[in-house]
Amino acid sequence: MQSPPEQAEIAQLERNAVDCLPAGALREKLKGAHNEGRRLRVKLGIDPTAPDIHLGHAVVLGKLREFQDAGHMVVLIVGDSTAQVGDPSGRSTLRPMLSPQEIETNAQTFQDQALRILDADPERLEVRRNSEWLGLGMAEMLRLMRTTTVAQMLERDDFAKRWSQSQPISMLELMYPLLQGYDSVAVRADLELGGTDQKFNLLLGRDIQRAYGQPEQAIMTMPILVGVDGRQKMSKSLGNHIGITDTPEDMYGKTLSIPDEAMGDYYRLLLHREPPAELGPRDAKRLLARELVGWLHSPHQAQEAEAHFDRVFVQREAPEQIEEASILAGSDGMVHLPEVMAQVFGMSRSQARRLIEQGGVSLDEAPLSAAEHDIAVDRADGAVLKVGKRRFRRLRAS
């Protein structure tokens, strides 16, 4: 049995949270679990609508790891069923539906990446997919729908705004918070975590648990991390993210591009401390970059990433080792660079064309002109393609 919760432990678990509701509920949950000789069941549900996790996700995953380290059970729900519905939180339009194959691919990738942060010990982690219980029959679905009124749903900020502007709200979107609440029933959650944009859904989960005769979960919301632009929430679709599987070099370089005014949030939410007062912004940001790379890769790779950055961007030299990319010439003996860039760097061809036209692409340090979308294979073979500031490939004709 765990020792009774101390005030310091509770304060540590609540650190950086925006909301811990109802007031005092976490303390009562901890005491209750101690008296019953069990651990808290701490739930996080994330829909696999994108294949990769970024540092914005790492904020709440890091909080889950704190609960694991305090001896509690984390229940990570991969929402393979709710991903087909689409979470309307913070949206002004209906989310596009993903195919089952896309969801399955994303789900596996997400789970693998989450384990870079969470402890995979089965005594501390339970990974579930909500397709296990969301194949509800009609009787159970009607029972779930009776727990909530339309008026309650329209209290949500995003729904209320769309309703006032006569914008459509689909029945599918109205179902989403109910299904998320049913997840809490299925896993008997004591506490549910989420971002501040999830507050309505988390609170509704309490109502649904009560309707099913279960103790109501406490809820904890975590701040939304801004992206490297310092303005909007971190998002892959906005291109302002730092992926937790980014290369050490990319992770280090992207971190250095964070605006000074956003750096404190990165320290507090990811490293759980304030920026060192004795360091200026430049050195504090370098320390942040080293520690993030050291956390998600290794300290040795953090040192190498810093050396790479200094060599390429301070001393203006090419990296010591450059990954090769195979190229294939067309019947005219030309290589279409937007196609190469799309395949190698995971961007769209239109993005690649724009980068060339904006002067952001060079070949052996010679910037390409706006019209140089196609180049002779003899010129490309063996040359170093540089895209933006951080992406390099040595081209090899195949």
3D architecture notes:
The protein is of the alpha/beta class. It folds into three domains: 7-222, Rossmann fold (3-Layer(aba) Sandwich), CATH 3.40.50; 248-314, no CATH class; 324-397, Structural Genomics Hypothetical 15.5 Kd Protein In mrcA-pckA Intergenic Region, Chain A, CATH 3.10.290.10. 43% of the residues lie in helices and 14% in strands. It is built from 16 helices and 13 strands. The chain has helices at 7-14, 25-35, 55-69, 100-114, 138-145, 150-153, 157-164, 171-187, 199-211, 248-256, 263-271, 281-296, 299-314, 337-345, 349-357, 377-380, and strands spanning 19-21, 41-46, 73-78, 125-129, 191-195, 218-222, 324-327, 334-336, 361-363, 366-367, 374-376, 384-387, 391-397. Strands 1-6-5-2-3-4 form a six-stranded mixed β-sheet, with helices on both faces. A five-stranded mixed β-sheet has the order 7-13-12-9-10. Strand 9 and strand 10 form a beta hairpin. Helix 8 (171-187) crosses helix 9 and helix 10 (248-256) crosses helix 13 (299-314). The longest helix has 17 residues, at 171-187. The radius of gyration is 24 Å and the shape is globular.
Layout of helices and strands:
Layout (H helix, E strand, L loop, with lengths): L6 H8 L4 E3 L3 H11 L5 E6 L8 H15 L3 E6 L21 H15 L10 E5 L8 H8 L4 H4 L3 H8 L6 H17 L3 E5 L3 H13 L6 E5 L25 H9 L6 H9 L9 H16 L2 H16 L9 E4 L6 E3 H9 L3 H9 L3 E3 L2 E2 L6 E3 H4 L3 E4 L3 E7 L1
Parallel strand pairs: 2-3, 2-5, 3-4, 5-6, 7-13
Antiparallel strand pairs: 1-6, 8-11, 9-10, 9-12, 12-13
